[in-house]
Amino acid sequence: MRKIEENMLNAIWNKLTVNLSNTSVHYNEHTQMSLVRLHGNLIATYKHDGLYKYKANAAMFKEWATTTTRSRLRAMGINASIKGGKAVIDGVVL
Asked: Per-domain residue ranges for the chain?
């Protein structure tokens, strides 16, 4: 895992708002969610409501199926891949 991804996860788990080069994490205390952005585009959310659930922004991954986006999602434990140039989450082509 890349250092930027370790820092991203640390920010999420500690409910921090940080800018990490091309990746940012914004914690919203009112919604109890962390928003993860890559180049300013929302790629995933994390709910801090006791269920602790990551959710990929499938529409964004479909549009920008890059290795960097895939790497950030995979660091969060989301089963993201790219097959034949198409975005795949949990085995489903988007």
From this structure: 3-93
Q: Which of 25, 18, 79, 74 is nearest to 48 (CA)?
A: 25
Please, which pLDDT band fits residue 56 given cuts at 50, 70 and 90?
very high
- Alpha-carbon torsion angle 20, 9, 25, 93, nearest 10: 100
Say if strands 86-89 and 80-83 run parallel, antiparallel, or are unpaired.
antiparallel
Cα–Cα distance between 78 and 57 in angstroms, integer? 11
Condensed to tens digits (0 to 9), the pLDDT of residues 69-88 reads: 999 999 999 999 999 989 99
Which token pair is 57? 């922004």
Identify the burial level of 58 via C-beta atoms within 10 angstroms of its C-beta, where 0-12 means exposed, 13-18 middle and 19 or more buried: middle
The count of C-alpha atoms lying within 13 angstroms of the C-alpha of 79, restricted to the half-sphere facing its C-beta, is 5
| pLDDT per residue as tens digits for the range 13-30 | 999 999 998 999 999 999
